[in-house]
Structure formats: C-alpha cells, structure tokens
Design brief:
The chain contains 3 helices and 5 strands. By secondary structure, it is α+β, with helices and mostly antiparallel strands.
C-alpha cells in the first residue's frame, strides 16, 4: 500500500495536535501517524491524493520541509529495499 511521508516542523504538542485534527477531517485516509519527536507525518490513503494531504497539512501553518510517496510494492517488484520505492516530491 502506498503511503505519504512528510517532514513537518512541529515544535510542541499543539503543533502535532493541529496536524492530527486537520488530517482527521480529510476524507480518503485509512490511517495516519503524527510523531512530534521525529517531526514526521505518515499518511496511508484510500483515495486522498498526495496533493490533498500536502495542502491539508500546509493549511495548519506548519512548515513542510519535505515529502515523498512510498510504494513498498514497487520496491518489492524490483527486489530492492522499500527506500527504492520512495519518490521524492517537491512542492
């Protein structure tokens, strides 16, 4: 299953809470993880696009330092690690 991974600048629990609340209101997401310590957000979509998720996080006012689409199935098909299935997306 494809996932979207973002490096988001979050400095406190309020920041991570804002991102969590925003993602919780977005349709087309199976699950998400917001990690304040690692400053990462991982989203597993059902139908939401990368751009929709990016915009939703951006609307919280948090800086998105980077983002990528990870497709472990593509990496497995190539016989490589999951990192090879990652595509860096620059917005």
């Amino acid at each position: 299953m494809v996932s979207y991974e973002f490096d988001v600048k979050m400095t406190c629990g309020g920041c991570s809470g804002a991102v969590s609340r925003a993602l919780g209101k977005l349709d087309g997401i199976e699950s998400y993880e917001v990690d304040l310590e690692k400053q990462s957000v991982v989203v597993r979509p059902t139908s939401a696009t990368y751009d929709q998720v990016y915009e939703k996080i951006q609307k919280t006012g948090k800086e998105i330092r980077s983002g990528k689409v990870v497709d472990p199935e593509a990496a497995e098909a190539e016989g490589t690690s999951s990192a090879a299935g990652a595509a860096e997306v620059v917005a």
